[in-house]
Amino acid sequence: MTTHMTLRVNGSDHDITVAPDTLLLDALRYECGLTGAKLGCGTGDCGACTVTVDGEAVNSCLVYALECEGHAVETVEGATAGGIGALVAEEFVKADAVQCGFCSPGIIMSTCALLARTEPGAATDEDIKEALAGNLCRCTGYLPILEAVRRASGAPR
After folding, report:
1. pLDDT of residue 59 exceeding 70
2. pLDDT tens digit string along 78-87?
3. pLDDT at res. 157
4. HSE on the CB side for 101, CA within 13 Å?
5. Which of its termini does the chain have fewer beta carbons within 10 Å around, N or C?
6. Nearest alpha carbon to residue 9 among 54, 62, 39
7. What is the pLDDT of residues 15-46, one digit of tens each?
8. pLDDT at 140 over 90
9. What do you get for the CA distance between the two ends of the chain, in Å?
10. At what angle do helices 104-116 and 83-94 cross, to 10 degrees?
11. Coil, strand or helix at 132
C-alpha cells in the first residue's frame, strides 16, 4: 500500500508516493533527489542524516515521511543556498572542519537549527556542544568544527 503526499522541502512542494514505513531520509534521497543527508548508522546515533523540520534538527532516519506532510523540511542543499547556512558552510571550509565530508551536512544542519534560535554571538560553547551532541565526526576531530560554529554564531544575521 502506498500513499500520495506533498512534502515541502527547501521551500518547494514535492508530490511523492510513499509507503507508510518510508523514512524521511529515503523520501528525500530517492523521491526528491536530495542526497545531502546521509545514511550513517540508521539508528539516530551519528547525525549524518540530520535535517530540520519546522526549524528543529531531526534525524531523518528516525522520522516517517508521512509525519512531515504539512511541515517545512530543510536539507543541507536548501540551507546552504544562501543566508546563515551558506555562512556556516563557508566557516566550515575556512576552519578546515571538513575532511571526508560524510558528516558535514548533518553537522551543518544542527548548526543552522542552533543559530536560528539564538541571537548573533549569543551561542556559548556549551550551547554549541549540546546542539552538536548528536553528530559524530570520525575524521577531523571536533576543535575545527567548534571553531567554525563559533565564527558562524558571531556573524550578523
Report:
1. yes
2. 999 999 999 9
3. 63
4. 5
5. N
6. 54
7. 999 999 999 999 999 999 999 999 999 999 99
8. no
9. 45
10. 130
11. coil
Length of the chain: 157
H helix intervals, 1-142: 24-26, 76-79, 83-94, 104-116, 125-131
- The burial of 104, by beta-carbon neighbours within 10 Å (0-12 exposed, 13-18 middle, 19 or more buried), is given as buried
C-alpha cell at 41: 548508522
Q: What is the pTM of this model?
A: 0.95
Mean pLDDT of 116-141: 94
Three cell numbers, residue 7: 512534502
Return the axis-axis angle of helices 83-94 and 143-154, rounded to nearest 10°.
140
> Residue 63 — φ and ψ, nearest 5°?
-115, 135
Name the nearest CA neighbour of 153 among 108, 119, 110. 119
Residue 155 clears pLDDT 80, i.e. is over it: no
